[in-house]
């Protein structure tokens, strides 16, 4: 869908739906909008009506904002988007808002519109695409609103890539498909891409290879790079995403119920690819690298076994106590690989632990790291776009839970603090640069009637990258 602006107040028009946005103290001048506003009861924010015109019936609606913090904006915008997705063209009047608030309101609405219009039905005999095609925002502050709409468009673009990859069936979205899709999407935007195959992984990345070797699908290491900073040699930000395209648990086999959702175990990779593409689309003035280790975790005669000892890329040996703790095995080698870029910071994103859902539920991502400034920046970015995250500690005492009689590290800790011990495990491979870890096991997808990838935490990461320069 397309977003644009006009430097005028929305006027009655013969075609297209009309949405008037106001507050409790600033009411629209349009008679229909004012009447709808007055019809709202306490606690209500949205009202709609059908207006007879010379050309038929026109949809009109009003959105009354309670306040302008991003969480409230997102909630209100989502309500308006449910209505807007059934329209083809929508004129959005935000003329009541000044140059500071108008861009924020426009961005929240545009993101909500774009996400509401998202459909994933390419496997269905009869596709039902959303009607929504265009939204025109009416405001006197066109330059700032246009800039906000560009951010919204890039975010929706990145989230759509993320959601499409996450929702794809695992017999389609294999490691090869994921790798080549990432390469194609990056190159389409003018960024560089490299795909590293099985031979390099087998020879250099023992932890990664130990997971991959149990599948008939070949593993890949994807490297995307973009040099947007004035100084092309400046230290880059590196994003690392877990790309397990299907996680059976391996020999430590998962229960059969809901195992289909383990196609979402590559949502960390999908997030990194989507964020990278959104940042390139916005032409952010930063140097950025995305690294995606991707493979399947399957049971087989040659698969990892509990008790196996493998050697990681940085030389540490790992005792595999549970083959279902495979994400950290592929990530640890990818994090070691990232060191060669002398990064400004490294952020890994992974659907790493079910324990994160126990701790934080399905609306909040876990964040931890070895650099508090980096963690604070991610938390601030999270709050600014209401893509919720919460810091978990990485005290040295947690290392006491990672002891092995036979190797340098086990791949799981003793019972308790499963999300933190997973992060602690990764910390052994990130000692030479600022690093943060996002556990998105609870936020990357939804189950039940709304089953599907959410596109999170693309908003958080894109907002973080936007505010680096």
UniProtKB/TrEMBL annotation:
<keyword id="KW-0464">Manganese</keyword>
<comment type="function">
    <text>Presumably involved in the processing and regular turnover of intracellular proteins. Catalyzes the removal of unsubstituted N-terminal amino acids from various peptides.</text>
</comment>
<feature type="binding site">
    <location>
        <position position="242"/>
    </location>
    <ligand>
        <name>Mn(2+) 2</name>
    </ligand>
</feature>
<feature type="binding site">
    <location>
        <position position="326"/>
    </location>
    <ligand>
        <name>Mn(2+) 1</name>
    </ligand>
</feature>
<dbReference type="GO" id="GO:0006508">
    <property type="term" value="P:proteolysis"/>
</dbReference>
<comment type="similarity">
    <text>Belongs to the peptidase M17 family.</text>
</comment>
<dbReference type="Pfam" id="PF02789">
    <property type="entry name" value="Peptidase_M17_N"/>
</dbReference>
<dbReference type="GO" id="GO:0005737">
    <property type="term" value="C:cytoplasm"/>
</dbReference>
<feature type="domain" description="Cytosol aminopeptidase">
    <location>
        <begin position="322"/>
        <end position="329"/>
    </location>
</feature>
<keyword id="KW-0645">Protease</keyword>
<feature type="binding site">
    <location>
        <position position="247"/>
    </location>
    <ligand>
        <name>Mn(2+) 1</name>
    </ligand>
</feature>
<dbReference type="InterPro" id="IPR000819">
    <property type="entry name" value="Peptidase_M17_C"/>
</dbReference>
<dbReference type="InterPro" id="IPR043472">
    <property type="entry name" value="Macro_dom-like"/>
</dbReference>
<feature type="binding site">
    <location>
        <position position="324"/>
    </location>
    <ligand>
        <name>Mn(2+) 1</name>
    </ligand>
</feature>
<dbReference type="InterPro" id="IPR008283">
    <property type="entry name" value="Peptidase_M17_N"/>
</dbReference>
<feature type="binding site">
    <location>
        <position position="326"/>
    </location>
    <ligand>
        <name>Mn(2+) 2</name>
    </ligand>
</feature>
<keyword id="KW-0479">Metal-binding</keyword>
<dbReference type="InterPro" id="IPR023042">
    <property type="entry name" value="Peptidase_M17_leu_NH2_pept"/>
</dbReference>
<dbReference type="GO" id="GO:0070006">
    <property type="term" value="F:metalloaminopeptidase activity"/>
</dbReference>
<feature type="active site">
    <location>
        <position position="254"/>
    </location>
</feature>
<feature type="binding site">
    <location>
        <position position="265"/>
    </location>
    <ligand>
        <name>Mn(2+) 2</name>
    </ligand>
</feature>
<dbReference type="GO" id="GO:0030145">
    <property type="term" value="F:manganese ion binding"/>
</dbReference>
<protein>
    <recommendedName>
        <fullName>Probable cytosol aminopeptidase</fullName>
        <ecNumber>3.4.11.1</ecNumber>
        <ecNumber>3.4.11.10</ecNumber>
    </recommendedName>
</protein>
<keyword id="KW-0963">Cytoplasm</keyword>
<feature type="binding site">
    <location>
        <position position="247"/>
    </location>
    <ligand>
        <name>Mn(2+) 2</name>
    </ligand>
</feature>
<feature type="active site">
    <location>
        <position position="328"/>
    </location>
</feature>
<dbReference type="Pfam" id="PF00883">
    <property type="entry name" value="Peptidase_M17"/>
</dbReference>
<dbReference type="InterPro" id="IPR011356">
    <property type="entry name" value="Leucine_aapep/pepB"/>
</dbReference>
<keyword id="KW-0031">Aminopeptidase</keyword>
<keyword id="KW-0378">Hydrolase</keyword>
């Amino acid at each position: 869908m397309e977003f644009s602006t006009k430097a005028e107040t929305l006027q009655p028009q013969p075609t297209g739906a009309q949405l008037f946005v106001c507050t409790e103290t600033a009411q629209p001048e349009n008679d229909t909008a004012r009447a709808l506003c007055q019809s709202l009861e306490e606690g209500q924010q949205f009202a709609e009506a059908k207006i007879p015109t010379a050309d038929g019936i026109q949809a009109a609606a009003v959105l009354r904002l309670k306040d302008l913090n991003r969480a409230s904006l997102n909630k209100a915008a989502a309500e308006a988007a449910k209505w807007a997705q059934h329209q083809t063209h929508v004129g959005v009047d935000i003329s009541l808002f000044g140059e500071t608030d108008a861009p924020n309101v426009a961005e929240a609405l545009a993101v909500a519109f774009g996400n509401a219009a998202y459909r994933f039905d390419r496997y269905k005999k009869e596709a039902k695409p959303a009607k929504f095609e265009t939204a025109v925002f009416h405001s006197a502050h066109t330059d700032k609103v246009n800039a906000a709409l560009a951010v919204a468009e890039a975010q929706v673009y990145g989230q759509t890539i993320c959601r499409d990859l996450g929702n794809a069936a695992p017999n389609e979205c294999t490691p090869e498909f994921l790798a080549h899709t990432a390469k194609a999407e990056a190159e389409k935007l003018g960024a560089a891409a490299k795909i590293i195959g099985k031979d390099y992984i087998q020879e250099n990345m023992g932890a990664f290879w130990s997971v991959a070797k149990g599948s008939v699908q070949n593993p890949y290491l994807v490297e995307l790079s973009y040099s947007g900073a004035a100084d092309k040699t400046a230290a880059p930000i590196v994003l690392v995403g877990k790309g397990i395209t299907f996680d059976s648990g391996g020999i430590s086999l998962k229960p059969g119920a809901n195992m289909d959702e383990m196609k979402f175990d590559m949502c960390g990779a999908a997030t990194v690819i989507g964020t990278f593409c959104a940042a390139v689309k916005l032409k952010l003035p930063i140097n950025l690298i995305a690294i995606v280790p991707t493979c399947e975790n399957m049971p087989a005669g040659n698969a990892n076994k509990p008790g196996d000892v493998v050697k990681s890329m940085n030389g540490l040996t790992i005792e595999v106590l549970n083959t279902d703790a495979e994400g950290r095995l592929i990530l640890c080698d990818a994090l070691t690989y990232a060191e060669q870029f002398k990064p400004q910071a490294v952020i890994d994103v992974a659907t790493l632990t079910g324990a994160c859902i126990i701790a934080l539920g399905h609306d909040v991502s876990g964040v931890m790291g070895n650099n508090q400034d980096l963690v604070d920046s991610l938390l601030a970015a999270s709050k600014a776009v209401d893509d919720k995250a919460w810091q978990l500690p990485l005290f040295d005492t947690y290392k006491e839970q990672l002891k092995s009689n036979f190797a340098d590290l086990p791949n799981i800790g003793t019972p308790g603090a499963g999300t933190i011990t997973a992060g602690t495990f990764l910390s052994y491979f990130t000692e030479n640069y600022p690093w943060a870890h996002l556990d998105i096991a609870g936020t990357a997808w939804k189950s039940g009637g709304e089953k599907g990838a959410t596109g999170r935490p693309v908003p958080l990461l894109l907002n973080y990258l936007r505010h680096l320069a």
